[in-house]
Amino acid sequence: MRKGKKIMCIMLAAFLLLPPNLTSYAAADAEPMSNSQNFASYYVDNNGSDSNNGSKKAPFKSIQKAQEAVRSLIGNGKLPSGGAKVYLREGTYYLYDSLVFGPEDSGTENGKITYTAYPGEEVSLSGSKPIEQSWFRPIQEEEKVRIIDQEAAGKVLVADLRGNDITEYGVLNTRGYHYFNKGQYMAAELIVNGENQTLARYPNEGTIPVDNKYLLPEEMSFKYDIDRPSSWANATDAWICGTLSINYENNYYPIESINTTEKKIKLKEGKIKTYYTNGWYFAENLLEELDETGEYYIDREEGKLYYLPPADFSTKSYKIELSTIGKPIFYFNGAKNISVTNMTIEGGRGYAALGTTKDYQMMTYGEFLIKNNVTNPITFDPTSTHFLRLASPADYPEAQVFPGHIWDGFLDDGPGVVGIEFTNCLIRNFGQGGLIFRGTKIKLENNEIKNIGGTGVFMSGGDYETLTSSENTIISNTIHRIGYQHKAYNPAIALQGVGGRVAYNDVFDGPHCIINFGGNDHIFEYNKIHDAVKECLDMDAIYTRNEISPQQRGSVFKNNYIYNLGIFPVGQYTKQFNVCGIRTDNNGHALQIYNNIFANIGSDRANNVVAVRAQGTRNTIKGNLFLDCSATYWGFDNYKPEMTWNTADAETLRRLELVKKYAANPIYAARYPELLTFDQEFYAAVATNTFEENLTVNIKFPLSLINGAILPSGARGAQQLMLGTNNRALTEDPGFAGYGSGNYELNAGLALLDQMPSFKNHNMNEFGPKGLSGKALTENLKDYINNLDINKVSKELLLKSLGKVTDALSKEQYKQVLLHMTAFLAQAKLQSPWIITNDQFDYILVESVNICKAVFATAENNSENSDSVTKIKQILEFFKSFSDGNDKSGKYKELTEKIKALAGLVQ
What we know:
Layout: H1 2-16, E1 40-44, H2 63-75, E2 84-88, E3 91-94, E4 99-101, E5 113-117, E6 123-126, E7 128-131, E8 137-138, H3 141-144, H4 150-153, E9 157-160, E10 190-192, E11 195-196, E12 198-199, E13 201-202, E14 208-210, E15 215-216, E16 221-223, E17 239-243, E18 251-259, E19 264-267, E20 270-271, E21 279-284, E22 295-299, E23 304-307, E24 320-323, E25 330-333, E26 338-341, E27 344-348, E28 351-356, H5 365-371, E29 388-389, E30 417-418, E31 421-423, E32 426-430, E33 433-440, E34 443-445, E35 448-452, E36 455-460, E37 473-475, E38 478-482, E39 493-495, E40 501-503, E41 506-508, E42 515-517, E43 523-525, E44 528-530, E45 539-544, E46 556-558, E47 561-565, E48 577-584, E49 592-594, E50 597-601, E51 607-614, E52 620-622, E53 625-629, E54 633-634, H6 650-663, H7 666-671, E55 689-692, E56 695-697, E57 722-723, E58 728-730, E59 736-738, E60 743-746, H8 751-755, H9 774-786, H10 792-810, H11 814-830, H12 838-860, H13 869-884, H14 892-903
Parallel strand pairs: 1-2, 2-5, 3-6, 4-25, 5-26, 6-27, 12-22, 25-28, 26-31, 27-32, 28-33, 30-33, 31-34, 32-35, 33-36, 34-37, 35-38, 36-39, 37-40, 38-41, 39-42, 40-43, 41-44, 42-45, 43-46, 44-47, 45-48, 46-49, 47-50, 48-51, 49-52, 50-53, 51-54, 52-55, 53-56, 55-57, 56-58
Antiparallel strand pairs: 7-24, 8-9, 9-23, 10-11, 10-24, 13-21, 14-21, 15-16, 16-19, 17-18, 17-21, 18-19, 20-29, 22-23, 59-60
Helix pairs in contact: 9-10, 9-12, 10-11, 11-12, 11-14, 12-13, 12-14, 13-14
């Protein structure tokens, strides 16, 4: 019997090796593709040539040449129905001008143009200039003199950038809150092994407090009461970063001079204003303070880079770069249906990607101010004693968008781009911002976005008048360390427009707000949102200001995990205050907050640190867990039944007219019927805010008694203005699965779960990134098979089998997906090892396991399998051991049995 099987396999293999009679379209000079794929493909390799035809055997050298080839297909009407793919072979591709894509580079909705790494290879697009390790030498004795810490000075190295043809360093520039940015890209930054290094600063961590009594706004100066700043008197191009005005601002100021006798620092430009809190700052760009590993300083006049390297610098190889490009890496100028996948995009002074309406002209700083009616000349008069002093906007002509302050950020009013996708990319080390888009059907999935000087992701799209959804999605991304250059109102995610979905992301580590949104009908769900508002006061992790546009509503926060807020020291303040998890500022409206976990927000006796603050109208907070929060929900404090809207106030009247206008729109009236009664529901007079079926548990510390009385529900505010029942406020563990370990799922069978039907008992694994979707993983496996050097009939059979997986995925038939995966693996097994090598088969097996896990993770949400938890756990544990272990081919039979068993556990 075994002999017969072997003969049949050999015959099958011989059959598969027969010359195929293929009828698929193959574009001129493009790699032929199979019928099931039907797309053109081109290849790019650093070792290729632009005189080649772009095939796998004769790749292009540049991405731009591949772009030209795709553009030619489109222009000649020869683009296959499946679009085109440009595969980049392993290596780093240095770019010093934008890759610009317009309508002439666009694919179709079902036939995208994809730029991707070759399967299994690592690819980076970099806007940096590489620096050789051999360029560094110890500094001379005369160079050491300026450095305060002489022990550290002995370890500092210097590299001659200019002598090695690196001459673009950018400039340090004034920036900060609101109309304080000059539209200049950031200065060049040193990047070592993929991580930003630290511009030499003092102190190395934290800030220097400044008492209000030391502020001299009329002189644009302030006094210092420590000795250290006197050491910077002879520094060239020294700057300070911090708050010398309002405590939710954070500005970057150039130092004009330091008077060591009077201990006074005079600023060239900036904003100084006394406030109810004292200020704080740190100083940077100081060779004098180069004293800690990882710090650097660039002498722009001499073109020299000073660096205090790691201790093993002389014995270990380091990748060293200077971010250089002053343009976006990708610029989608009215483009449609272009996808970027599976690569690293890094190292620029501007943005990773920018997507705008065709021929949209980015404004200069002066044009931006004019459009926003900021024309008061005293603001820009360098001789003025006004508290805000900037030089003439005409001196800053570099065009720039301003994503950040959500109500005046991105000035592109056109339709933008369509169908742009970034999937499975690492996007890092951009001084100005990450992915900035206006448009529709934009999809960001499973990316890591980190070390971004400004906003991580800015997205705007959809139609306000018709409430047509943008269909924009931000799914399963990790976004962190953002806003380190622009520290005010530059969040990880800024969302405008209509109908965006933000789900399964891990968003953290920002100095200011971490999510900033405006518009209508957005969904935020299953995100982890934490460790934000780390360097200011009076700010919130999730911030909106829709009181100025009360027709903007319908956005929902549900099933998110929001934690670690209001706990960071700032300036002289060891405990933060006036910090919220979510706030609609200035008595805004219509926050919808359901079934979230708010945890570790504030501290014992915190001053106005609140999980949710929403004091306007029609705010609903329902079914949430508030755990160890100093305050839960804060509505309006004073019940004033005689009050109504002040129509004598021009701004209030403008807002009421806005509501009246949109209430007359049948689409708005149907979607938001409360607009019809808005003018009758003044927030201090009528109860419209709901706080219902929320569970408050304070174990570490009690609810704070500061800022007013606490209601029995655990909320605060005027009881007459708050609707809602059936809340619980406890001071002991009600039965968490693992309070000490951060597992806040409640044990089954607790009476309070039956008593609070709207409360959702979360599994902590629900939150945050889920990895690539089954569809994306299947497409990646198709890519791998397409690029195998095997005969086309063999390839066709495998792709046809995977095509059934894709079809079942599109129909959400998850049981069938898993069964089709076993059929696909059987097909691959038949071809191994005669056609497919053992290593290739092992790769296919591991990727197939990943697809099955992703499919099951999706299917779980649509199935009832609580009685099969043990069996599921065993299967998933086998999948892990299979992927990590050896002899995968030997476990093939067991693997397919496990996949079939998994198929039996889904609907």
